[in-house]
């Protein structure tokens, strides 16, 4: 609220938040936060002790339900170790989730799905700044990925035995410098063209918003050249 100029100080923010029913803060850190001003608000009479107890009670009730105060022997996660991280079972589940989350907006003349058994006789062009750049495939707050488990569109298609040609057209999502001649060369002889565009955390994240929804830089031009 302070950052949005709704209040003018952390103390005023603490009073307004507690009175409004807020009981959890994503703080800036111990030296710059709101919740450390609650004792002062209490001492000044801006909030009551009963109100403070009412706000805290559901937090500890939730933590108790989550088992945070249970003995380690009662916690089923205590028996897990790092062997479950990136295990085949978990990677297969991630693949299933990805497959089931695709949204197909249009399928002219039944172009999709592309069947693996038919790809060996096809020449595919995979283009765009997201076609073979593992770094830009992850959103804000994503964990640090293990490169060996990252499958870019280019890598995935090549593993299916397809004849794949590739060019990024531009090296990063902002697409400030675009190589049209290289793109035209790659897509010119292709039977199927896959254009991989987007934004990524280089362009927009939390606290880094955009004023419009247009594709960054020359990405729209890249798409139009690929279609033509």
Automatic annotation (TrEMBL):
One of its GO terms (molecular function) is alpha-L-arabinofuranosidase activity. Keywords: Glycosidase, Hydrolase. One of its GO terms (biological process) is arabinan catabolic process. Residues 103-226 form the Glycoside hydrolase family 3 C-terminal domain. Transmembrane segments: none annotated. InterPro entries: BXL, GH, Glyco_hydro_3_C, Glyco_hydro_3_C_sf, Glyco_hydro_3_N_sf. It holds the Pfam family Glyco_hydro_3_C. This is XYL2 arabinofuranosidase. It comes from Sylvia atricapilla (blackcap). The gene is Xyl2.
């Amino acid at each position: 609220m302070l950052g949005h100029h709704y209040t003018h100080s952390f103390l005023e923010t603490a009073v307004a938040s507690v009175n409004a029913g807020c009981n959890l803060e994503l703080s800036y850190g111990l030296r710059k936060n709101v919740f450390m001003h609650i004792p002062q608000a209490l001492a000044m009479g801006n909030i009551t002790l009963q109100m403070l107890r009412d706000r805290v009670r559901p937090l500890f009730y939730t933590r108790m339900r989550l088992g945070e105060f249970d003995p380690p022997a009662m916690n089923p996660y205590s028996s897990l170790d790092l062997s479950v991280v990136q295990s085949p079972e978990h990677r297969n589940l991630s693949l299933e989730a990805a497959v089931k989350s695709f949204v197909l907006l249009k399928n002219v003349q039944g172009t999709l799905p592309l069947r693996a058994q038919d790809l060996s006789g096809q020449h595919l062009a995979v283009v765009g700044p997201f076609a073979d750049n593992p770094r830009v495939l992850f959103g804000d707050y994503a964990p640090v990925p293990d490169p060996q488990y990252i499958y870019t569109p280019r890598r995935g298609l090549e593993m299916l035995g397809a004849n794949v040609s590739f060019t990024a057209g531009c090296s990063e999502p902002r697409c400030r410098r675009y190589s049209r001649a290289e793109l035209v060369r790659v897509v010119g002889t292709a039977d199927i063209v896959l254009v991989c565009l987007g934004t990524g955390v280089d362009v927009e994240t939390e606290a880094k918003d955009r004023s419009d929804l247009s594709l960054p830089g020359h990405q729209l031009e890249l798409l139009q050249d690929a279609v033509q």
